[in-house]
Design brief:
With 235 residues, the chain is α+β, with helices and mostly antiparallel strands. Helices cover 29% and strands 19% of the residues. It has seven helices and ten strands. The strands form three sheets. It has a five-stranded mixed β-sheet. It has a three-stranded antiparallel β-sheet with strand order 8-10-9, with no helix packed on it. Strands 1-2 form a two-stranded antiparallel sheet. Strand 6 and strand 7 form a beta hairpin. The longest helix is centred in the C-terminal third of the chain and has 17 residues. The N terminus and C terminus are likely disordered.
């Protein structure tokens, strides 16, 4: 994502930007929503999926709201609060949710925030640098219970979010937090997890020579994995 403060005519980027990055505290805000006023920090202690929609009554965005609602119970199991953000007015957001309910029978079960002046978009650095189109980037921020940004996922406007993939990323983050392990490519809950690479020769030696005792399998000294005995709580 490109912050407007870092754009220069000579295409050189200065390294002192206040960019949104992984590990940073999520910028707090208070805004109107379809469920009343919302402050991000009121959800401290919960995971938050904050996602930005380019605008109301978009067919792709509508499909996302429906999918999020259909899988809302899965997010609740993971202690996740869903929050959508749009650049339209609060009344337009309400009208959109009513329209979805009237035509599909789906009652959206999470708030939509109105960011009419793009204040939140600027906070999270998701205003498209191409001002011709006057749109925001379709971004998702996964925020931890301590309000740190743990994942940032960007999609083009033409591509709807993969809600199952968001759940998988949340499962991975929560597994890492609980067990201090990593997850391999294409990992799904219940699959083997990766032990962080050794930091010393002695640690590498011990892992290679005590695999049975440690309950791990090492293909290489730096590539060891194991199955979690208790499994993932979301499987």
């Amino acid at each position: 994502m490109v912050h407007s403060n870092n754009l220069h005519t000579n295409n050189v980027t200065i390294g002192d930007c206040d960019c949104i990055t992984l590990g940073r505290i999520a910028p707090d805000f208070t805004a109107s929503s379809t469920e009343g006023p919302i402050t991000l920090s009121q959800y401290r202690g919960k995971w938050v999926v904050l996602f930005y929609e380019p605008g109301d009554f978009s067919p792709t965005a509508t499909s996302e709201l429906i999918s999020f609602t259909q899988l809302h119970s899965e997010f609740e199991k993971r202690n996740v609060q869903l929050i959508g953000v749009t650049i339209d007015s609060n009344l337009a957001d309400i009208e959109w949710l009513v329209d979805i309910f009237q035509h599909t029978g789906v009652k959206v079960t999470f708030p939509l925030i109105s960011d009419r002046n793009a204040e939140i978009a600027r906070l999270y650095d998701i205003v498209s640098p191409d001002r011709i189109y006057e749109v925001t980037v379709r971004d998702v921020f996964i925020i931890s219970p301590t309000q740190h940004i743990r994942a940032i996922i960007s999609y083009p406007i033409s591509c709807g979010l993969n809600i199952y993939e968001l759940l998988r990323v949340i499962d991975s983050l929560q597994t890492t937090e609980q067990y201090n392990v990593y997850t391999p490519s294409n990992w799904v809950p219940g699959g083997p997890v990766i032990i962080p690479a050794p930091q010393t020769f002695e640690e590498a030696f011990q892992k290679l020579n005590n695999q049975n005792e440690l309950g791990i399998t090492c293909n290489m000294w730096y590539y060891c994995y194991q199955y979690l005995s208790s499994g993932n709580s979301n499987t």
